[in-house]
Design brief:
The chain has about 550 residues and is an alpha/beta fold. Helix content is about 30%, strand content about 15%. The structure holds ligand NA7. The site of ligand NA7 has 21 residues, from α6.
Length: about 550
């Protein structure tokens, strides 16, 4: 499916052949791109963002599929940099849906007058570092060209959609799309026989919503997930007032937690209390909304080991209780990976969908998809006739969006070649041989905006330092990069996120190196490391 909004580019239409000159170029106008624009503009730099989409929002622009919403608390997900913005914006639901999230990011763009610095419908195809004048030459698909000293890739961690290379995909006679490119005008699913491939966080949200309108739904599941009730609801006026009065405390809590969420682990081990007390806590937290069920639980529930398996058993039982047919229930119960080793989807009635007469669950681990046919999907067992196919098959995470751009650094090497065995960066931000490039999308951890905001602030501060001290180049030293890669590999191996084959480690993409794609550190540790690096005159960076 193509771009839902094909318009002519807005800002920066320049005469043919002219190369626009800026201090900094930002690729992407999503959450990090918008804030990067804001900060760099505040510093007095001339900045331009190039955005592939027809509007701002990134993830919240493209993911228009039914059911798409936050599963972090809305009021922890907004920007914190402007008190005025915090007080002006009313989140309507505890876990806000895509339309409102897109509206919020548009509101931010308008409030801070960012739109005039963004050129929409502008796909960057290559960026080449000019070693003569220490500037990035950026080329767009439509032939537009621009140059800047600094290049910031705010291209998102989950933006390069992945559709498995199924044979016959183009022979299918009905409409099909990937959830991350849901058409702006929607898909007509009412009364249709719809097939969904994928049961990750996206599939779980989508399936629950579309099961209400389709005539028949076939869900192709390869791996069952541990899903837990989201328990969303509207924010009433009194709660709104309380939230607005508590932002300092809310953000303080987020800043102190490992993943920047407003939840704090119980410092006790699950195994140090009696089975009754353990179960009482599991049950009490299960009734709570969102991620609290595990992020406020005994700390070792989210670490490989006995407590983790104990909690997994509890969640499996919760799933069994909600599905009428015991055979289907067993198919939905995850048994092949640790609780929390994959991203945990939140749901609002997902399991009950499988009690509907018009819903069929197909196990494609046991009988894999062989091909897409003109009439539907053929597994090794049967052919399923469908009117519409939806791919909720995930993303080529973190490096995928970077690799779509030909980024050439010193000596003509490309970032794609350099990252072939996994990302080679210093703190996710900078890569040796790619001066003045900030791979901001490769450095976020946890609750996205909470992690992105301090990161963008650090990068802007770094750029200010470089300019004030009249350096023309900054890049990671090969030694700092080697040490960081070693840290990611060694310490990453111990954490829950590397234990299963998921996008966290690139294992969802055939042929992609299996490496932790983000930092193994908690958000507070990451911020402290970056602060120390800056305080030591950008230790680990080569300033020329
Ligand atoms: P995910 O979590 O990567 O899920 C993708 C799903 O697609 C998952 O169930 C996969 O099964 C399935 N998949 C992928 N390839 C195939 C093939 N070839 N056959 C059958 N099934 C397949 O992506 P999401 O979009 O759901 O979520 C991404 C993030 O967005 C999420 O973590 C949140 O942070 C928000 P598998 O599990 O690999 O067996």
């Amino acid at each position: 499916m193509g771009n839902p909004e094909q318009q002519t580019p807005t800002a920066g239409a320049s005469p043919a052949g002219e190369v626009e000159q800026f201090d900094a170029i930002v690729i992407g106008a999503g959450v990090t791109g918008l804030y990067s624009l804001y900060r760099l503009h505040e510093l007095g730099l001339s900045v331009r963002a190039f955005e592939d989409g027809g509007g701002v929002g990134g993830t919240w622009y493209w993911n228009r599929y039914p059911g798409c919403r936050f599963d972090s608390e809305s009021y922890t997900y907004g920007y914190s940099f402007s008190e005025e913005l915090l007080q002006e914006w009313d989140w309507k639901e505890y876990y806000s849906g895509q339309p409102e999230n897109e509206r919020y990011l548009n509101y931010v763009a308008d409030k801070f007058d960012l739109r005039r610095h963004i050129r929409f419908n502008s796909r960057v195809v290559s960026a080449v570092f000019d070693e003569e004048d220490d500037r990035w030459q950026v080329n767009l698909q439509d032939g537009h060209r621009a140059s800047a000293q600094f290049l910031i890739t705010s291209v998102g961690i989950l933006s390069a959609g992945y559709i498995p290379d199924f044979e016959g995909i183009d022979s299918f006679q009905g409409p099909w799309c990937h959830t991350g490119r849901w058409p702006k005008d929607g898909m007509d699913l009412a009364g249709k026989r719809v097939g969904v491939i994928g049961t990750g966080a996206t599939g779980v949200q989508l399936i629950t919503e579309i099961a209400k309108e389709v005539s028949h739904l076939t869900v192709f599941q390869r791996t069952a997930n541990y899903c837990a009730p989201l328990r969303n609801g509207p924010i009433d006026d009194e709660a709104q007032r309380k939230i607005k009065a508590s932002y300092p405390e809310i953000f303080k809590m987020c800043n102190e937690s490992a993943g920047s969420f407003m939840h704090k682990f119980d410092p006790r081990s699950a195994m140090d209390v009696s089975p009754e007390e353990r179960l009482e806590q599991y049950e009490r937290l299960w009734k709570e909304p969102g991620f609290k069920k595990w992020l406020s639980n005994f700390y070792d529930v989210m670490m490989p080991g006995e407590a983790n398996e104990d909690y997994a058993k509890f969640v499996r039982e919760k799933i069994r209780q909600r599905v009428n047919d015991p055979v289907v229930a067993e198919m939905l119960v995850p048994k092949d990976h640790m609780f929390g080793s994959k991203r945990l989807p939140c749901e609002s009635g997902y399991y009950e969908v499988f009690n509907q007469d018009n819903v069929l669950l197909v196990d494609v681990r046991q009988a894999p998809i062989e091909r897409i046919t003109p009439r539907g999907i053929k597994t090794s067992d049967a052919e399923y006739e469908l009117d519409v196919i939806i791919f909720a098959t995930g993303y080529d995470a973190v490096t995928g969006a970077l690799n779509k751009i030909e980024i050439r650094g010193q000596g003509g090497q490309t970032l794609k070649e350099k990252f072939a065995g996994g990302p080679r960066t210093y703190m996710g931000i900078s890569s040796a041989g790619f001066p003045n490039l900030f791979t901001i999308n490769a450095a976020s951890v946890g609750n996205f905006v909470r992690a992105a905001e301090p990161l963008v602030e650090w990068v802007s501060e770094c750029i200010r330092y470089v300019r004030e001290n009249e350096f023309t180049r900054i890049s990671a030293t090969p030694e700092a990069e080697d040490a960081w890669v070693k840290h990611v590999n060694e310490d990453g191996a111990k954490i829950l996120r590397t234990q299963a084959n998921s996008w966290f480690v690139g294992a969802n993409i055939p042929g992609k190196a299996r490496v932790l794609l983000t930092s193994p550190d908690t958000a507070p540790v990451m911020r402290a490391k970056r602060a120390e690096v800056a305080a030591n005159g950008y230790e680990g960076f080569l300033l020329e």
